[in-house]
Prior knowledge:
Blueprint: H1 2-29, H2 34-38, H3 46-56, H4 62-74, E1 80-81, E2 86-87, H5 88-123, H6 128-142, H7 145-159, H8 178-214, H9 218-225, H10 230-267, H11 273-282, H12 286-314
Antiparallel strand pairs: 1-2
Helix pairs in contact: 1-12, 5-6, 5-8, 5-10, 5-12, 6-8, 7-8, 8-10, 9-10, 10-11, 10-12, 11-12
GO cellular component, one term: plasma membrane
Membrane topology: Multi-pass membrane protein
Family: Belongs to the binding-protein-dependent transport system permease family.
Amino acid sequence: MLTYAFRRLLGMIPLMILVSVVVFSLAKLMPGDALMGKIDPKNSSPQYIAEMREKLGYNQPILTQYWSWIKHVLQGDLGQSFVHKKPVGAIIAERIPNTLLLMLLSLCITYSLSIAMGMYAGRRPNRLGDHFILSLNYVAYSIPTFVAAIAAIYVFSFKLGWVPASGSIGIGLDEGSFSYYISKLKYAILPSLVLGLFSTAAYTQFLRNEIMENSRKDYVRTAMAKGTKLSRIYSVHIFQNSLIPLITFLGFDIGALLSGTVVVETIFTYPGIGQLVIQSVNSRDYSVLMSVMMLLSFMTLIGNLIADLLYGLVDPRIRLD
Length: 321
């Protein structure tokens, strides 16, 4: 398994090079540049703008600019943010723990609810509980993310007052204290719930269909003929074989959740990577934007690697050579 993981990590190198070319090209094709996000052209002299472009290297050939950027990235220098007036690496390091917390909570919500409801609906198809779960899935799947986020804020924050509507931490708390972490968790519950429920609907439906299909397989009839309890057949044999396709989704979820936080974090004013993307686009802070896009691509590749490694743990018949 370690050899397989090492080979996969080596295979990521050409993919990341290709991603870097695409990200850099898209940034250059966007209107304006980082300098235009820093100064007001109407209040700046053309001579000053020309001098700044020359100083920042924007007048150099595209290939020269790309090589200069990628060389600094390989050295750990992601550049300087014009908007935040600090290194890009420091900005991402401040924001990414919040986004990772959202991801972790949303994954826990997604897989715990989808496994529980999918197992129940797949074991008892076409009954009242199954129809109720399917109806919930259709409703949840059809509601746009921003609508669900606004509705959740209105109900759980404004009406019930259970959780805060925005932000990521309470005021006046000592970092590292127990109350600090409780506050972080409290502020992350609502956005992670909105982020996780939409995948829950799709995964529940998928797991239900997988369980129904696997329950008709020959190995199930063999286990029943041997006198194995029906509860064990469903909880071990059928569930284990139905879980393998969900692991495939896990690999995509890691990258998809990072990009999906753009809408959720913006609505909840949650200071994470998603909100940073919107701010960087609006202010043309391309050094931050390119670094975040590279991070999203890398996390997607890592997620696929984790999913492949989990295959061998869930199903011993799958060999990773």
